[in-house]
Amino acid sequence: MHEPKELFPLLAEIEDREIMKITTEVWIEVQKQRSDLDVKEIPFTLLIPTRKTLIEHTNTVTRMAYEIGKGRSDLNLNLVIAGGLLHDVGKVLTYKKDTEKTLRHPLVGAALLSRYDNLDLVHIVFTHSHEGDHLIRSKESIVVHHCDFIDFEIEKLRSSQ
Q1: Which among 40, 17, 134, 23 is positioned nearest to 83, based on CA atoms?
Q2: Distance between CA 108 and CA 119 in Å, rounded?
Q3: Fewer CB in a 10 Å sphere around the end CB: N or C, the chain?
């Protein structure tokens, strides 16, 4: 098992102790539940051919979201960072090497977070993907959503070249 602080450098930028605790505990929990996997080896998507891992994607999305968050005074930077770090955490539990249909990772991630008293994080994780397209996203979720899709689209372009 990998320590979340070693996987995610921006975890140290979360100033809210409760949000830091939630983010750390959830990443530890998914690694325990999927002890058959090394989270460093999970691809970030099975939709395109890529060598990029889930951890690399998570760090890329979080870095982009963090930079946007630093430039805006109307965002909760703790939620932006934690939302970036947690947006795809459900993929650890739903990952299968084949493309067999399974529960969608936003739902699984939101379910993991639902045991904590932070609906803002549940909202970001649930709405960051297509599930949020017909909902009103929070400002922080908008940032994570767009950073997630920017990274996906760039990786998709790279994989086609």
Answers
A1: 23
A2: 15
A3: C
Structure tokens, 35: 């002890």
Give the CATH fold of the 4-160 domain.
Answer: Hypothetical protein af1432 (1.10.3210)
C-alpha to C-alpha distance for 118 and 103, rounded to whole angstroms: 22
List C-alpha distances in Å: 48 to 44, 51, 140, 156. Answer: 10, 10, 27, 6
**Mind listing the pLDDT tens digit for each residue in 43-65?**
888 777 888 999 999 999 999 99
How many C-beta atoms lie closer than 10 Å to residue 76's C-beta?
16
The mean pLDDT of the chain is 90
Query: How distant, in Å, are the alpha carbons of 5, 17, 79, 119 from that of 114?
Result: 22, 18, 15, 7
- 95-129 residue pLDDT tens: 776 555 566 777 778 889 899 989 999 999 989 77
DSSP state at residue 73: T
